[in-house]
Recover the amino acids of this structure.
């Protein structure tokens, strides 16, 4: 079995060292402990993550997205003005407003009545449709 150090694995999948440690602790990625107690990541796990990302790029599952808060709701307003669009999402009676590019909103098919997700990460909100 080909095992990688955490720093190597993090570099291959383009995440930080602390992120990969959190993934291990949260069970999002499998690791093997060495006799000295160090975590190693099987290459098969790296391939699994990379394949999941490819699926997402092709319109696959949301499971591989790293945003901690994925909130599903219904678009109740989509206003377009030049380069920008204002999208208002109703999530269980709570409203979230995001300003994104008009091109992105059109590409996602965001319009009144469609189901979409607000992905909240740090200080930004991203919109995505399933």
């Amino acid at each position: 079995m080909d095992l990688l150090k955490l720093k190597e694995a993090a570099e291959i999948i383009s995440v930080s060292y602390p992120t990969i440690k959190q993934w291990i602790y949260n069970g999002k990625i499998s690791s093997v402990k060495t006799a000295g107690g160090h975590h190693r990541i099987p290459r098969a796990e790296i391939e699994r993550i990379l394949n999941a990302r490819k699926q997402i790029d092709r319109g696959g599952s949301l499971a591989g997205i790293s945003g901690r808060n994925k909130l599903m709701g219904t678009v109740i307003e989509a206003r377009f003005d030049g380069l920008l669009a204002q999208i208002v999402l109703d999530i269980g009676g709570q409203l979230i407003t995001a300003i994104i590019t008009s091109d992105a909103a059109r590409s996602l098919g965001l319009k009144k009545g469609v189901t979409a997700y607000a992905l909240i990460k740090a200080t930004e909100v991203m919109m995505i449709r399933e």
